Automatic annotation (TrEMBL):
Coiled coil (UniProt feature): none
Keyword hit for Metal-binding: yes
Annotated GO MF terms: cobalamin binding; metal ion binding; methionine synthase activity
UniProt protein name: Methanogenic corrinoid protein MtbC1
UniProt keyword terms in alphabetical order: Cobalt, Metal-binding
A single GO cellular-component term on record: cytosol
Transmembrane segments: none
Residue intervals of the B12-binding domain: 97-223
InterPro entries found in the cross-reference section: Cbl-bd_cap, Cobalamin-bd, Cobalamin-bd_sf, Met_Synthase/Corrinoid, Meth_synthase_dom
One Pfam family recorded for the sequence: B12-binding_2
Lineage top rank: taxon: Bacteria
Species of provenance: Paractinoplanes abujensis
One GO biological process term: homocysteine metabolic process
Amino acid sequence: MSVASRRSLDDPGLHDEFLDLIGQGDEYGAVEIVNELLDGGAAPQRVIVDLIGAAQIRVGELWAVNEWTVAREHAATAISDRALAALAARTNVRPTRGRVTIACVDGEWHALPTRMLAEMLRLDGWRVDFLGANVPGPHLISHLHQTGPDVVALSCMIATRLPRAHAAITACKAAGIPVIAGGRGFGPGGRYAQHLGADAWAAGAEEAVRRLARNWPPHNQDPQLSAFLGDDEYTYVVRHRPQLIDTAIQRLTDAYPAMRTYNQRQLDSTAEDMAHIVDFLAAALYVSETAIFTDFVTWTHQVLQARGVPTVALRVGLETVQAQLRDYPRATAMLTAGMRLLNQ
């Protein structure tokens, strides 16, 4: 390829072309674009953030509005991961900083954002141990004792994983390793990260690189800030989760007769939705933050509307869970706040 024909991140239509390639499962084409951009002098960090990262945001949006299936979204993500691997193979940076362990908390499967962070930190001179998705807490701590990193970067994309994130952060701090947190699960602006004991929070890979490049580690915070989370209401919801879900589905069938015509796939999807209601309620109770639950209701309502599910189905689902929690005022108030949103 001649110098004149090399690609640039500013080329019109480039981002749509890349999105189309990963959407069609064209690994060769996606990797070719990455290589052309690097050949043209594009900074690898910019390719990660402005091309691959931006495309993944769009992939999530297309799934949410029901234009892409889960299978297509997963296939596209796999191609993005291959494109990122191709970029990594082209960039050899000798470590000049410390050692960082990067992992998704237990139960968190969205690994590509952490994979992008791993490459961004490697390009900035860190020695990186990338542990990937769904890392159980004991396994993470065992790794820390074996390798002795300077910092742990933990990702939590879904708020239902916050109790496990808290357990992981607490264990890391007990091992003497500071933690930087990231991911939407920690709330707007990372508002729950410090509450759970993290030393810092970053909105994305670029911010994490900047935070770790200066004034690290930060001053230790008061451990009492995160020592006591969860209460009797949270404990009740978690311990009775199967019963809450099963009873809600039974009552939903009586209150929403259309369910009697559902096929097995629709029934499975409804059961999954009911589980999400209970799990997000538990997360909201854990950190005493109603917004966790109301944000979930708003997002779920939008997704269900895109799939042709009427609002009444979600409202009845909330009511059936609330009816089982009448003796728990905080849980009841959160469910009421969610139902209020559906009436707007």
